Amino acid sequence: MNWAFLLSSFVAFAAAANGFAAESKPEVLGHGVGLFNVGALVAQDDFANLDRWVIQVQERSGFPPVKVTSRNNSLDCLLPGRGCTAWFKQELSTRVAITYDVLCPTPEPAIKGVKPRDINNFWLASDPIDPVDGLFDASRYSGKFSTYDKIHGYYASTGGGSDAAANLTTRMRRYPREVAGKPAEHLALNDKDKNPEYLITPDKVMRVQLVAYDDAIQYIVDGKLVYEVAEGDKVQVEGRDDAGRTTASDAVYNVARFPVYRKGYFGFRMVGTHHIYTNFRVYALEPATPDGN
């Protein structure tokens, strides 16, 4: 498929559909049913420019140039062989749903270091030392994925993997993965790995929804509840042993061990891919019942 033609078709669709897709409200699924309702639109961006974003791109030689631009009401990110995080500068509080549309085209002709992969997200994220501005410090967060292991926040990923084998994993985590330079145990849900129903469909617009409502955290793609967790749920806790090997154990999620994140920032996260984002929206979530505080 000619990805340049696909791109032009997509941005034309996005512009024409702005009135439809932009107003398509978040889904209420799983733990959300009876817990919250969708409230007012509290933030949005249609990417007329990148003034509201901080872009962090990994430095890595041996690949074609990076291109991160805004055009035709889209954020167009071409990242050959490099990691990138795009932070929305507005701080968000819990009881929100974040939605956006994303296209992950197949490059034709092939581009070194570019595959349909890694539609990833951080939300309610913050730096443990400087919660207000620390995430935007390029000396601490470089675009390389491992530099974000120390942050506080939630993370979800569709189509992860490696340079050699991409679009294989689908996961949700609660960060940090590292504290004071040492591996930290953290919530890590990964039972959808290698399931094609939960991976990227290249050349297709996908809708992502991220929810944070106190202890209830959800990852929804194309109207399908991928992962969710709330206090009392059975979860997997992941860490590393002294030899650096991944360890996993079963646990019950409780906020005493894993406190709720109340505020932080949203970030698009990607590596070695081409993503085109449109219709970024943030909605308030309101209690479904009068006694829901």
TrEMBL record:
Signal peptide: 1-21
Keywords: Signal
Domain of life: Bacteria
Segments forming domain DUF6250: 82-233
Pfam families found in the cross-reference section: DUF6250
InterPro entries on file: DUF6250
Listed name of the protein: DUF6250 domain-containing protein
